[in-house]
Structure formats: structure tokens, C-alpha cells
Design the sequence.
């Protein structure tokens, strides 16, 4: 059965086939995908004090394309994510939710969502993996601008290109995306794998032929479309999803072997 996690409480989903133009901002409040079982929302507790002099965000290795948002990238732990968020902006209200996502062949692995909100800035981070070893596979961020403090659309796009590289866009659109193959090469819109790799949906029933996807969407001011009223950016690492899925399956298999060894040694006591 296909098992995927869909961005429901966050920013944007850019999916579909090559030519683009089917971008959408998804806000399905209260709608949890069937394959994701909500276990519990973590209780609200005071965030521990963090020594921000010792906290550093992570970036891609030198020579590789940028793949972080605010210093949060795939492979980080939930604690690392919370620390970076607290040190980036002390005004963030940080919460988390625990759930599970199904594995191929049965069973499930944990999922942890960390979400931070200042009222004008929202960051959502998804982590999956073996129990106690969950790692980041997705980050998205939304920034809203108050009246009189909007930023030029072209300035945002230039800064995005400076960090991530040139984006695939559509004439007249204020959105773009970058899709990379498993070995890090840029996949063009004419590539046969572009459509399935351009989505922020996270699939666990197969290994996707992609490294990651980066996308953005800018909401223009109604009175002055050259100014942005909001700005969304998201990064999903399909390669990290595959790695965590395989690790969870290995943990599951090890538990079965341990149980089998116990039976072989002790019997069933029939």
C-alpha cells in the first residue's frame, strides 16, 4: 500500500507533472492523511534554556548545493531543531506532535513534527525513522509581512537564487522549484522523473529516484503586486526518507530475530 505524508499544517505542496503551474498552498486544518496515525500531541512545557553560543545550524558540505532552511537540514535530530529555532528567534512558540507512518510490508515507524510560530513566521519540520533515532526529512517556512514592511518580490527571488541556484518557474508566476536526482544533478522539466520528484509528498512504499526538491511561492500584495505580502519556501529530502525507512525496517527485522532467538532458547512452554 502506498504510504505518504502530506503537508497539511504547513506551507505549500508543488506536485504534478513536468510543465508546472499546479502549485497550491494546502491548509487542511484537522485533516490527517489516512496513512498517518496521530499518537499524541506533546504536552506544552517550558523550553529548556539553551546556550546559543554553542548552537549552530547545519549546511550542506562545501561544494554541494544548499539544502537547509535557517540552518535546519535533513539528518538533524528534534533536539537540534528546537535549539536552532530557539536561537534563531526567541519569540518562537515551539510545539511538537508524535504520530506514526506505515512501512512497506506492514508495521510503522515514528514520526515527529516540530512546529514553531511567532505569529508572523511559521516553521514546520518533519522527522521520521527508527524509534529514538528520528531524523529531519522535511522543512518548510512561511513569513508574512505587515503593512508597510512588505519586501520587493524580485529581491526575494534574487536572494533565493543566490542561495539555492536557478529555479524552474512559469512565466508570470511567483513560484519556482529545483529538483535533483539521486546523485545531485539537476533534473529538468523534460525529465521523465520530474513530475514524481517535484512533490513535497513523502512516500515510503518505494525508493524515489530523487535526492530532494526545493520550492518557493510568493504571495503578492493586492495593492502593489511588486511587493510580497508573504513568502513560502520548502525542502524535502526523498533520499533521507528512503534512508530512514530502511533503517526502521532493519530495526523491525532485528526485533523479530531477537524474539525468534528467545523462543529457540526458551521454547514456548507448551
Sequence:
Amino acid at each position: 500500500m502506498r504510504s505518504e505524508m502530506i503537508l497539511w499544517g504547513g506551507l505549500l505542496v508543488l506536485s504534478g507533472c513536468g510543465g508546472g503551474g499546479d502549485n497550491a498552498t494546502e491548509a487542511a486544518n484537522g485533516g490527517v492523511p489516512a496513512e498517518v496515525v496521530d499518537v499524541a500531541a506533546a504536552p506544552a512545557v517550558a523550553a529548556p534554556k539553551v546556550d546559543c553560543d554553542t548552537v549552530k545550524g547545519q549546511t550542506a558540505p562545501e561544494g554541494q548545493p544548499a539544502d537547509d532552511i535557517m540552518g535546519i537540514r535533513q539528518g538533524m535530530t528534534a533536539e537540534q531543531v528546537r535549539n536552532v529555532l530557539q536561537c534563531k528567534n526567541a519569540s518562537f512558540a515551539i510545539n511538537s506532535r508524535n504520530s506514526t507512518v506505515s512501512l512497506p510490508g506492514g508495521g510503522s515507524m515514528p514520526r515527529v513534527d516540530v512546529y514553531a510560530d511567532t505569529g508572523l513566521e511559521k516553521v514546520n519540520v518533519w522527522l521520521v525513522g527508527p524509534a529514538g533515532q528520528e531524523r529531519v526529512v522535511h522543512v518548510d517556512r512561511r513569513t508574512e509581512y505587515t503593512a508597510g514592511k512588505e519586501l520587493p518580490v524580485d529581491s526575494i527571488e534574487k536572494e533565493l537564487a543566490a542561495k539555492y541556484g536557478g529555479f524552474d518557474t512559469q512565466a508570470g508566476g511567483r513560484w519556482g522549484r529545483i529538483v535533483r536526482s539521486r546523485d545531485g544533478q539537476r533534473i529538468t522539466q523534460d525529465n521523465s522523473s520530474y513530475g514524481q520528484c517535484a512533490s513535497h509528498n513523502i512516500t515510503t512504499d518505494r525508493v524515489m529516484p530523487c535526492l530532494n526538491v526545493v520550492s518557493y511561492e510568493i504571495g503578492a500584495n493586492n495593492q502593489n503586486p511588486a511587493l510580497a505580502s508573504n513568502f513560502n519556501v520548502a525542502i524535502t529530502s526523498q533520499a533521507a526518507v528512503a534512508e530512514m525507512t530502511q533503517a526502521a525496517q532493519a530495526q523491525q527485522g532485528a526485533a523479530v530475530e531477537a524474539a525468534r532467538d528467545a523462543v529457540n532458547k526458551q521454547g514456548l512452554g507448551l
